[in-house]
Design a protein that fits this description.
Layout (H helix, E strand, L loop, with lengths): L1 H16 L4 E17 L2 E19 L2 E7 L4 H17 L24 H4 L3 H18 L3 E19 L4 E19 L2 E2 L3 E7 L6 H13 L10 E7 L1 H9 L2 H5 L1 H5 L20 E4 L20 E6 L2 E2 L6 H7 L7 E2 L8 E2 L4 E3 L6 H6 L3 E5 L2 E2 L10 E6 L2 E5 L2 E5 L4 E5 H4 L3 E4 L4 E3 L2 E3 L2 E9 L5
Parallel strand pairs: 8-15, 14-23
Antiparallel strand pairs: 1-2, 1-4, 2-3, 4-5, 5-6, 5-7, 8-24, 9-10, 9-14, 10-11, 12-13, 15-18, 16-17, 17-20, 18-19, 20-24, 21-24, 22-23
Helix pairs in contact: 1-2, 4-5
């Protein structure tokens, strides 16, 4: 730990000697194995080792940034010099305040499993093989269209000229499978399943079987009439829809830029009283858990919505200062080669009291949507969405009856959040979001027969 920081800490003094008022170093070292599947076959296995440093300097409120993919002393010095020169040639940012100052970091649990660091590429290939075999054993009509397995472990560290210093180890392992099923001239839509964990307890067999099951149950779809229906969205669909709408709206940079639908709505009712959401950067075993963010600010739990009432936005240091607020520890880095931006950690929707079967049983005529396509075209400022629901199934008289083709969900996500009918108890984390199933009332579904 001290060895890594020892290699770079003198760079702060060097940059200051060149005129920098503030200096920040972000360091990562990591190793990963990746297995790729196409058309039922493992087509590649690869390993990568990457390390590097991003150097951000501030000189008279002008910011310069440089990075190098090495911890070599000379390369670090050259990168620091480049960052200082960029700052000298840049216009001052009059909104700049300062880099974070030291604070105590919380203790986080469940983000490092030594067993993952001891895996070989052959071990990760075996995980992919087990997943493929489970798919093949489920039904011969199913083709594993795409997929793979990955393991990664590494460290990341932050230090700055104000005395912030942190270093953390983390691991992740995962597998994913996309399938299609064919029976005669009938071909299912692409269906997928994933499993990502911080510890070595993934279940590749379950991923393979579930991806196969979804494909088989999507065969022989029927059309659906256009109308307003009660709709259950599973976690995959919620992750896609909220990621392109709700997440940008609660981000402090968009609030400052007047691009948030929730601006000026703090402490007002913006959603159903059944909805409670928090951003939990210290969640045990969370996929995005850490003790500090990409600027060295302690991670924390931040209430976003409590019983429908908007309580907070998420901030990094820069936009928090502009808003007259405090950073919520949501500065996100996409590696050492990028400056920080704002992003969620583990966005958690509070579980409800209904199991999935009960939620379905309460619907007389509706739709269950596992996933959607086209969420990237949503408008986060207005909340307007228009996505293809696939795979999805018709619900009739309290039972899931048959798959549906050509259905589109159209409407406003912020209005939908006001019309929540029930919330499930089946929490699951996918990417940034931990959520249960959620049933929304009066959702506009455009059926294929009316297009």
């Amino acid at each position: 730990m001290s060895e890594i920081l020892g290699k770079v800490e003198n760079i702060i003094n060097l940059a200051e000697s060149m005129g920098a008022d503030e200096v920040e170093l972000f360091i990562t070292q990591g190793k990963s194995f990746e297995i790729e599947i196409r058309q039922g076959q493992i087509i590649s296995s690869s390993s990568s080792i990457d390390s590097g440093v991003g150097i951000r300097v501030v000189l008279k409120k002008a910011v310069g940034f440089g990075y190098c993919n090495s911890l070599d002393k000379r390369k670090l010095e050259q990168t620091a010099e480049k960052a200082v020169q960029l700052a000298k040639s840049s216009k001052p940012d009059n909104n700049w305040c300062e880099l974070p100052h030291p604070s105590s970091f919380p203790v986080v649990r469940g983000i490092y499993d030594k067993r993952i660091t001891e895996l070989s590429v052959e071990d990760v290939v075996e995980i992919a093989d087990r997943m493929l075999q489970a798919t093949a054993d489920y039904d011969k009509r199913v083709t594993p269209y795409w997929g793979g397995a990955v393991s990664a472990h590494g460290i990341y560290a932050i230090l700055n000229s104000h005395g912030v210093e942190g270093l953390e180890k983390s691991t992740v392992i995962g597998c994913m499978m996309g399938t299609v099923a064919q029976e005669g001239n009938q071909v299912s839509p692409e269906c997928s399943e994933t499993d990502y964990k911080r510890s070595l307890n993934i279940n590749p067999e379950n991923v393979g079987r579930e991806a196969a099951r979804l494909a088989i149950e999507s065969l022989k779809p029927k059309k659906m009439e256009t109308g307003d229906y009660p709709v259950i969205l599973a976690q995959d669909a919620l992750t896609s829809l909220l990621g392109y709408t709700f997440v940008p709206t609660i981000s402090g940079d968009n609030v400052i830029r007047d691009k948030s639908a929730y601006k000026n709505k703090l402490n007002t009712l913006v959603a159903s009283e059944m909805l409670t959401v928090e951003d939990d950067g210290i969640m045990e075993r969370g996929l995005n858990t850490a003790s500090f963010d990409g600027e060295g600010t302690p991670r924390q739990k931040t209430p976003i919505i409590e019983n429908g009432v908007l309580k907070n936005f998420i901030f990094d240091n820069y936009f928090a200062r502009r808003a007259g607020a405090k950073s919520t520890g949501n500065a996100r880095r996409r590696g050492y080669s990028a400056t920080p931006n704002i992003g969620p950690t583990n966005l958690r929707i509070k579980r409800g009291d209904k199991d999935p079967q009960e939620m379905v049983s309460e619907i007389g005529n509706g739709l269950f949507i596992r996933d959607v396509q086209g969420a990237h075209s949503s408008n986060p400022e207005s909340g307007e969405v228009s996505v293809v629901a696939t795979p999805c199934w018709k619900i009739e008289k309290g039972e899931i009856k048959y798959p549906v083709k050509g259905a589109m969900l159209a409407g406003n996500i912020y209005e939908m959040l006001k019309r929540i009918g029930s919330v499930g108890n089946n929490l699951r984390q996918l990417a940034y979001l931990e959520a249960p199933w959620i049933m929304f009332e009066h959702v506009r579904i455009v059926g294929e027969s009316k297009l």
